[in-house]
Amino acid sequence: MLTAFSDAFVLLAHLDGGVLGIVGVSLQVSLTALLLGTALGLPMGALLATEEFSGKKLVIVTLNTLMGVPTVIVGVIVYLLLSRSGPLGAWGWLFTTKGMIVAQTLLTTPLIAALSRQILEDSWRIHRDSFLSLRLPSLAQYKWLIWDCRF
């Protein structure tokens, strides 16, 4: 067991090409999924924080539930979707970088949406009257709320 760790450190120390390739793919998948999850989840969280509509509580409960879904379940669902007999099998994304990005995006989007909703909802309570008195359009309100909560 100790030799496996020492071998791993030797590969890292010598900047082995295979290891660097693996690290590069891992960073590409994770960062792309994070960007896609943010692009989908942040506006969803802002909409849920500021708007009232029927079914809002159901959407919030669903998002909170999706945060607790085990990653294995998401992996199985993505596998079934992307397998040859699945509805997206024609894309040929099974066991590819794109498939991994889809899976990680499905994991990150509910997290980002649910957490941003809570933070933006607290800020909305503070700034709501100011935004409404300024008659800012919804998109501008979302932009300023997100900017205010950026830290």
Short description:
By secondary structure, the protein is mainly α. It has a single domain (29-148), classed as MetI-like (MetI-like fold). The chain has six helices and no strands.
Describe this structure as you would to a colleague.
19% of the residues are buried. It is elongated, with a radius of gyration of 20 Å. It has one domain (29-148): MetI-like fold (Orthogonal Bundle). By secondary structure, it is mainly α. The chain has helices at residues 2-13, 17-50, 56-67, 71-82, 97-134, 138-148. Helix 5 (97-134) crosses helix 6. The longest helix has 38 residues, at 97-134. It is built from six helices and no strands. The chain starts with a helix and ends with a helix.
- What is the CATH homologous superfamily assignment? MetI-like
User: Count the strands?
Assistant: 0
CATH 2nd-level architecture: Orthogonal Bundle
Number of domains: 1
Question: How does the helix and strand content classify structurally?
Answer: mainly alpha
Spatial gap, N to C terminus: 42 Å
Annotation field: number of helices: 6
CATH fold descriptor? MetI-like fold
Oligomer: single chain
Helix percent reads over 70%
By CATH reckoning, the class would read Mainly Alpha
General form = elongated
Largest sheet: none
Low-pLDDT parts are none
Gyration radius, in Å: 20 Å
Overall pLDDT: 91
Written as H for each helix and E for each strand, in order along the chain, the element string is HHHHHH
